[in-house]
Amino acid sequence: MDTKHHSGLDDEDPTDICCSGAGEETEHVENSADTDPTPPQITSSHPLQHPPVFGLTEIQEEHMDVEGEKEKDKDASILLSDDQIRALGLVLSGQSVLITGPGGVGKTVLIRQIYEKAVREYSKVVAVTALTGAAACLMTDIGARTLHSWGGILIRDDLSAEEKAKRIIRYNPEAMRRWMRTDILVIDEVSMMSPALTREMDVIAREIRGYAGRTAPERAKPFGGIQIVFVGDFFQLPPVLPRGATKTFVFEVTDEEHARGKEHLPPFAQVIRKRSQVVVLRKNFRQEGDHRFQKLLGRARYGKLTEDDIALLETRVRPPPKTGVIPTRIFPTRLQVEEMNEDQMKLLDKSTEQIFEARTMERHFQKMYVTNPETGRATTRKVPEWRPLPRPLRVKMAPEDNNPDENPGGFTEQAAVDELDKGGRFDPKLTLRLGAQVMITSNLDVKQGIVNGTRGVVRGIKETPRLVKLELLDGRMYDVTPIVFESGYARLGREQFPLILAWAITTHKSQGLTLDSAEIDLGMRIFAEGQAYVSLSRVRSLEGLFLRAFSPRSVRASPIVVEFGKSVGDVVDEP
Fold it and tell me: Mapped to the 3 state alphabet, what secondary structure does 206-249 carry?
């Protein structure tokens, strides 16, 4: 069965498997005899390779926007900001760093440039990871995947970090090889990384790299000597913590760790202890054409709106114009989103309705013989193939379910599928009608800009073979077919259209997007610090901002994060 493969992801669940196909290697090294071992001087006029050019949908991912771009002509080169150049230089010089700053300053663009430079010019093995599947999906073309998936980390509270490391060594040779080979590990969305996870990652890295024959001094280094690039904005959405957790953010250190001395601090604390290893990106590209809005967002990020800011936002409490493209609606709760999508669906012609239910698929491997055209040598490769599961799902564990490599979460088959269905990356029972507004939830064709976040309107529905014809917001037509979303139990997946209804989306799902216009609820339903700022900062300008409700109390920041921001020089602009 010729079925596209994609992993199941949920941007609100950091434990989801990422976008890489089963068995694929996501770190790449390119060696060339012509590579100059001397690092080039990095200046503000040094052109770097531009990331792929994407289609002009209304919703564009942060890395697909014009962040960091100063066009000299119509070629594909860009110039980085001074802060981006400084961060790139620190990474290429071998230092672990924290790269932070507000939304729209080019953090994802910088990750791409770090990857390109380190791999192609320095022959480094670079692993790009993120705390959530949605963020990882935005960078699949450079091999990004979730941190848990990359590291082969078991999602089990009953196992210590040492025990998890032993299981990786014994049962997961691919993950162990990634730990051993990686020179630079990029961790995006570090704001969603809990203190417990960074300590666990540190222990696992030291155990694995020490076991495989690394020297004792190297094993004693943070992350076993791997260079770490932390990226993220702590003023955005915080991590989801287990019950009983007393520390929220990765920069918080326990009294015991303080007492034991600087060498016993967790890796993140060791990085930020040296102010020179922290880079705050300040140049905003998303709202570059609206200086007043930039200033307002800077204060909203800190939860410090002025009376003028409040008055200005109150002028935006208005419905959007009824002409043109309907703006994306952003709500803080899933319930609001579901109600809006259902209400809008009822306005469409019911006679065109089609319901598509997700199908459970099972992964098999086919041997493929590949001949190297230069050497003539033939090698075999296992290629994954997905087939419909021919039996009911097991609700109890079977012996074959205990393979940690296949089933790191220790799921039953039914539990794995249930968790995947609840993830939000697809609708297990997708109801469509002609005229429905939908959002693509996977990177289907990066070169054409058909990516996670692309919106369109349903213009055709075909049941056999299953196909949905979309009219994208730039007028192009695109045929969407089902793909397979891989579950936490790697052998099982769900085949479904990578589509969700998108008259409205949650704040969580908007993170990382750039919008020309949006209708946002900033009323009393905002329940988390940083949530209002995330929603506001998606929009390019005040002219594209429409508020359904606004309460100044909804715009707030965590006092702990504010103090941390001040300590690293990430300060709010004064009114």
Answer: HHHHHHCCCCHHHHCCHHHHCEEEEECCCCCCCCCCCCCCCCCC
